[in-house]
Amino acid sequence: MDKKIEHAKYSYQNISEILRFIDGKTAGVAAFTTAIAGLSFYLLQFLTGIGADETVAASCLSKFVVVMLMLSLVAASLSVICCVMVNLARPQKTTGSVLLFPVHTNAALDEKKSQIRQQFEELDDNAVLEEFADQLANLGWIASRKIKFFRLASYCTIAQVGLVPISVILLAFSWLCS
């Protein structure tokens, strides 16, 4: 039975590390997306003349570049929304487990303390395995949701990163041709 409990502990630690890793990568994607969105916004401001007296975007190619930069900002917005959704990935139903994942309100704090103490006192090896199984199922669900939204955020960021350099190249080409 000790090997089973050790394996359950390892699994719990492993999925917890995976969740932290996903959260860290998501923060990096959100920061990178925001930086590229700043560049897109700067180029849009330059091309459309926001805050200036005249517009630079006169040619059809320049107008196409404006559309591409706007699409990159849409992709950035979707990416940031998906990054936020990564942090909202929580199971809708909890299974009543309170030892490994004690979630409760402050109003019920005293009641939960006594409930947790009683559960620890009644804990045997089978109950420990059941507790780990319950929490691993919840954490697995959370991980799958986080991975789903992280992938969506990554795809949107890839689209954004693809649109901005193409826009800059087309903008440079339009200036060379004029």
Topology:
Blueprint: H1 2-48, H2 60-87, H3 109-121, H4 125-177
Helix pairs in contact: 1-2, 1-4, 2-4
What this model shows, in words?
This protein is an all-alpha fold and 178 residues long. The protein has one domain (2-177). Helices cover 79% and strands 0% of the residues. The protein has four helices and no strands. The protein has helices at 2-48, 60-87, 109-121, 125-177. The protein is elongated. The termini are far apart.
Largest sheet: none
Series of secondary-structure elements, N-terminal to C-terminal: HHHH
The helicity comes to over 70%
Strand content: under 5%
What is the overall number of helices? 4
Structural class: mainly alpha
Q: Tell me how many strands there are.
A: 0
Rg (CA only): 25 Å
Mean pLDDT: 82
Total separate domains: 1
What labels describe this entry?
mainly alpha, 178 residues, 4 helices, elongated
Describe this structure in a few short sentences.
This protein is mainly alpha-helical and 178 residues long. Helices cover 79% and strands 0% of the residues. The model has no long low-confidence stretch (mean pLDDT 82).
